[in-house]
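quick one before i forget lol
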Amino acid sequence: MELSGLDLGAPPWAPDSPFARAVREADTLAGDLVVVTRIDCPGTWLEPGGTYRAEKLFVVQVEVWGGTLLVATLETYSDAWLTMDTRGREQPEVHALNAPRLAAALDGISALLGAPPEPGDENRYAAPSTTGFRDLRAEGPAYDDAWGTFESLDRARLLDSRLPESEDDYEQIADGPVRYLAVRRDDRTLGFVWAAVDDSAAGYVPRTAAGDEAFDAGAAWITALREAHRSGLTPLAALQDAVRRPAPPEAGVFARGSHLEAPSLDALEELSGRY
């Protein structure tokens, strides 16, 4: 049995929370089974300029094997614990604010489970340790440009998985400045719909910290851009058309105000990837 993408709820042990329902469902099973539960955990990270929220700061995975073996895994989706961010830049102040928080959480989990943490494998961004992550400033990360090599492709793959194949996409690469509008739901920014100032390209950039909702909204806006492309609109005209077009609930709404401008698509992607 596998249950993925659960929300902890508030509080998680309340009778009607997703977590409590999953526990009850697992308790009804019989036999030599493996039960895997994955729980999305929102949270905040700190920077000298403020506090920021991520809808999937951690994922907790709990595996129960035949009722006799329990394996708990903590995955993190933030670079706030690292001495170098995902673009290979040193961030000692961010690390100093956040790394002790992760170390304390690992201590608490170790005390609860009665065993020290076992670090996972080193990946493209970081090297896990028993207290968080090793300092890679001396040796450097595994890749010089992990963001450019992997992150953009990963985000495109997550968006594409929500969309049918189409030949009606605008060009996705812009060499110069881009105009964009922020897509919001409630008080959270989900992503940015953009068009190149030179009218050569258009697309959607998901805000990583918004989690899966950013990609669900992106699928709706990419669909709208495809319709504009089929109608013969240029990228900048498609951006204007998106403002007037009624959007489905999962798409969110545009923040009020005029179009903003970023010096490059890369700069907009960096904004969406961090904040």
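fyi The chain has a mean pLDDT of 86.
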